[in-house]
Write a structure and sequence with these properties.
The protein is α+β, with helices and mostly antiparallel strands. It has two domains: 148 residues, no CATH class; 116 residues, no CATH class. It contains nine helices and seven strands; from the N terminus they run αβαβααβββββααααα. Strands 1, 2, 3, 4, 5, 6 and 7 form a seven-stranded mixed beta sheet that branches. Strand 4 and strand 5 form a beta hairpin. Helix 6 crosses helix 7. The longest helix has 17 residues.
């Protein structure tokens, strides 16, 4: 797919475009039953930004260096859709609320393709050679709202957590995802109530000391810590967003509590 999306003949071939994985396959936390691959197609030559942390003089310095883009996001997304249709056939491509859906076939997994701009949340901007920001992505939804997320930060932090827990973190995520799948199969939850992204984020907050010994001990230690934690202090694995809340990049408190209650009550854990 990367070859198709970055081919020389695309309508955006003269732009800086990056294609990368996000989600379970990118973070090596996929389990049996995970089907679609999450792919990001990022227009990096045009970026949007957050300057809320900068003092006025740095805001002025930023605007002195960068001008408004002339290449529109809608043109980029349409060109990506047309490239996918050209490569895989119009019947295999459809538009979702947040992503472009590519149907699987001929040994190819299906994909949810997020077409986006690069997003920069600036910490400082003194000059083009002296700047610092967190790199994320931003894209509009069918509901008219922009979504800002940080998949590279998420992946980086999960890998760092995995190393810090002596390789216990990612297998533990898979165990909790399998618990989620069991609850879904039994009709206790719907899959949408406990997305993998939020399960990873929940376990990211658990102290490293709670991982290890055995998988059963680790699961019980993690659950015990989560049950006693101040939920208002928990963050997403990207470290940027509070984990629980009403936005599209947060886990609704109602769904989280339903998942936690059902997990604790799952008799096969004990």
């Amino acid at each position: 797919m990367t070859t198709a999306l970055t081919a020389a003949g695309t309508a955006y071939a003269d732009k800086s475009v990056e294609v990368f994985l996000q989600g379970s396959y990118a973070n090596d936390t996929n389990i049996r039953g995970d089907s679609d691959v999450d792919v990001v197609v990022e227009l990096a030559s045009v970026f949007r930004y957050g300057l809320g942390q900068l003092p006025p003089d740095q805001v002025r310095a930023f605007h002195a260096e960068y001008s408004n883009a002339t290449y529109q996001f809608t043109d980029f997304k349409q060109a990506v859709v047309e490239q996918l249709q050209h490569t895989y056939g119009a019947h295999a491509v459809s538009l979702g609320h947040k992503s472009v859906k590519l149907r699987g076939g001929s040994g190819r997994l299906g994909a949810d393709i997020v077409v986006c701009h690069q997003y920069r949340d600036y910490h400082w901007f003194r000059s083009i050679l002296d700047q610092d920001y967190d790199e994320g992505i931003i894209f509009p939804t069918a509901y008219g709202r922009d979504v800002i997320n940080y998949p590279k930060l998420h992946a980086h932090n999960c890998t760092r957590k995995h190393k810090a827990t002596k390789q216990w973190f990612k297998p533990t995520v898979r165990i909790f995802k399998n618990i989620r799948s069991t609850l879904v199969e039994r009709g206790v939850l719907s899959k949408e109530m406990a997305p993998s992204y939020f399960v990873e984020g929940l376990l990211y907050n658990v102290p490293d000391s709670q991982f290890g010994g055995s998988y059963s001990t680790t699961v019980l230690n993690c659950l015990g810590w989560i049950l006693n934690a101040d939920s208002s202090t928990l963050v997403c694995a990207n470290g940027k967003n509070v984990l629980f809340g009403p936005s599209s990049v947060q886990w609704s408190r109602e769904n989280w509590l339903a998942f936690l209650k059902a997990t604790v009550e799952l008799e096969t854990l004990w």
